[in-house]
Amino acid sequence: MANRPRGGWDSTTQTAPPITVEVPVLGIGAGPSYYEELARYVFALRRPRGLHMTLLHLGVLEDFCRDVAAWTKGNTSAESAQLRTVAWLEALPVLEAFSGSAERLIVLGSGGVCGLEVDVPASARDYQVSLVHALHELLDELLVDNIDDFILSSPALGFRSPRWVPHVAVGRPMYRGHGPWEIGRVGVDFGESRIRNRQFLRDSGPG
Question: How many domains does the chain have?
Answer without folding.
Answer: 1
